Amino acid sequence: MAVPDRNRNQDRRATGLAVAGIVALAVGALLVLLLGLVPPTNRISVTTRTISEYGLGPGKQVFDLAVVLVAAGSAAGLSGLRRQRRLPVAAAVLGALWTVGLLVVVAFPKTDWASATGSGGGGALHRAASVVAFACLPLAVLSAARVTFPRSPRRRLAARLLAGLSLGWFAVILGAVAVAAVADERWWQLIPLGLVERAMALTELVALAALVAPVRRAQNSSVRAS
Fold first, then answer.
1. Are 50 and 35 in contact (CB under 8 A)?
2. Residue 54 forms part of a structural domain
3. Residue 223, pLDDT score
4. For residue 181, with 0-12 CB atoms within 10 Å meaning exposed, 13-18 middle and 19 or more buried, which class applies?
């Protein structure tokens, strides 16, 4: 009887981590949404300005809290999957890169182009961390879906579709960069960058929530991560 009890306790802890992670993701997303709705940060255009713009002004503390909550929620949810042996090593590494990338985004604000001094190397780190984070999360979901949902084809398909859509938004940005390089244009002016980035961020959070959401214990008992 000891083994079933231990498995049951493991499932409870993993479920608790998943629920806490999803709540943290939701609160973080809500805080960013509020920044776009309430003054003075509502003056920042959600169409043309990136989310990180909130980190340069009076909304910095709220922005930082939101991103840290998303990072913590991501770590909790992925840790729950790992406890249940439902997260492959590759997905765990990619998820860790996403989480670390978010923390780097907080630690090093984006370049303030309105400032004469800018932000030096910190701005470059911010951009690099953003690219790594936004690219790694959907890849983590794609690589984990089969192992995470071996007996739930609908949830597996939903996670993969959301991850694919996230990469599609990312491809829009890469496409703008490529076109701008050929046409000698400013790539961020070729697309509504703020909307594209917000759509990508939202899709990725939903994809992550779909991946880490608890499953029935009967399904967990037969899962083994590769």
1. no
2. yes
3. 45
4. exposed
